[in-house]
Amino acid sequence: MSAITSRQAARERIFKQIQAEVDRLLPADPKVPLQGRTFLDFENVAEQVSNDLYVTIVEERVMLAGLDRPTVARCPHCSSPRLRKVGEVRKREVRTPRGVATIEEPTLRCRDCGRTFSPGAAGVVDTGGSGFVAQSGGEGGA
């Protein structure tokens, strides 16, 4: 049930970003001048909007991937599946072809070896729509 709520929240954040971009490009107040004067200006503004939306969508999708299935099933140090979340969530910036996406990562502690680590967004692999699994080969699960 929480994944549905989180998915809805992600959709709302994306729609809010889209609305903000439309309001910036085409203000409702006719007294506010439109941005740009040349076709190149229009293209540059459209590209910036595209990049901003791309980053927002990537950030939301990564967050949903973390909610649907854990990105790490085993400790990278000792391969134990006995993990627990500890501490606060770290925010990490990931460079994409269109900008920087901010990704929240939990800090995990292995109950066997006691070491802590963050799974990292690089560990999330798209399996062609069948869900996400860790690159280390472990399967997520509840």
Q: Fraction of residues in helices?
A: 25-40%
Q: Please indicate the percent range of residues in DSSP E strands (runs of 2 or more).
A: 15-25%
Largest sheet: 3 strands, antiparallel
- Rg, nearest Å: 19 Å
Task: Count up the helices.
Answer: 2
The shape, in one word, is elongated
Unreliable residue runs: 67-71, 121-142
Structural class: alpha+beta
**Total count of strands:** 5
- Average pLDDT taken over every residue: 75
Termini separation: 14 Å
Strand order of the largest sheet: 1-2-3
How do the helices and strands follow one another from N- to C-terminus? HHEEEEE
Number of separate structural domains: 1
Question: What does this protein structure show overall?
Answer:
The chain is α+β, with helices and mostly antiparallel strands and 142 residues long. It has one domain. The protein is 38% helix and 24% strand. The protein is built from two helices and five strands; from the N terminus they run H-H-E-E-E-E-E. The chain has helices at 2-25, 39-68; strands at 83-96, 99-110, 116-117, 124-126, 132-134. The strands form two sheets. It has a three-stranded antiparallel beta sheet. A two-stranded antiparallel sheet has the order 4-5. A hairpin with a 5-residue loop joins strand 2 and strand 3 (116-117). The longest helix is centred in the middle third of the chain and has 30 residues, at 39-68.
